[in-house]
Amino acid sequence: MRGTSKASHDAVLRGFDPVATAAGEDGITIAQHLFMVVDALDTSGSLRRAMTDPARPGTDKASLVAQLFGSLDQRAVDTVKEFAEARWSEEQDLAESIEDAGEMALFAYSDNAGTLQRVEDELFRVERILEGNRDLLTAMSNRSATKDQRLGLLEDTLGGKLHPTTAALLERVVGVPRARRLVPAIKLLLEQAAQRRGRTVASVTAATELSAAQRERLASILAKAYGREIQINVAVDPEVLGGIRVQVGSEVVDGTIFNKLDDARRRLVG
């Protein structure tokens, strides 16, 4: 998403953030209702066109939202109206932005409840499980399977083990993947959770688990380098042999023995 759509997305979400923060437990309901609007847009090309038509007055589009979705939570309806009144470069950007608002509502609820750190930890563990089990990832990402089949697999694998916010977020990306791939979608959720806590995510791969002291030391080093708090998520991969690989956003620092050996091999071959 970029250009006009990005500006609209960011402006509406800035206004929605305090609404989501003040909603408390209602954040769950608001998220569910926003997701219902996304599903309606995804299944109706005519509705997408009507709500993103730049030639149609914003007041008309807001009236359409009230007509179609007026029975939903008023805070969700008002937010969708604001999205509809904005301008969009691509039709699909509207639904994507409303999806982001739903996720924001869930994170705000968890933040208010003091459980956001737990949610973030659980999302990271699920990501590692999926990346370590290709058969499970393939089955849970199978677009040929029905929504109920994918959600059934999620329940069989993790049911009863997750915080309700974590479960709601995963049920969304597994049950209604839209154009998203599962692991990258979970990584984006992790980034959103960290951002809500005022942190940036550093994905660390090491041959063995890092101690608490090592994590604190690495977080301190990265915080000084980036000028902000860093959330360390560590994945253990024995194949790296030694050292660590750190990724912050698009920046990667690879100090693993495996990478050094691979560099040496390439130099010899070249």
Describe it for me?
With 270 residues, the chain is an alpha+beta fold. The protein has 3 domains: 1-113; 115-197; 199-269, no CATH class. It is built from 13 helices and 4 strands. The two termini are 40 Å apart.
Biggest sheet record: 4 strands, mixed
Please indicate the count of domains.
3
Strand line-up in the sheet with most strands = 2-1-3-4
Structural class: alpha+beta
Work out the helicity level: 55-70%
The radius of gyration over CA amounts to 21 Å
Shape: elongated
SSE succession: HHHHHHHHHHHEHEEEH
Straight-line N-to-C gap: 40 Å
Please state roughly what percent of the residues sit in beta strands, choosing from under 5%, 5-15%, 15-25%, 25-35%, 35-45% or over 45%. Answer: 5-15%
Kindly state the number of beta strands. Answer: 4
User: What average pLDDT do the residues reach?
Assistant: 89
Distinct helical segment count: 13
Regions with little confidence, pLDDT below 50 for 5+ residues: none
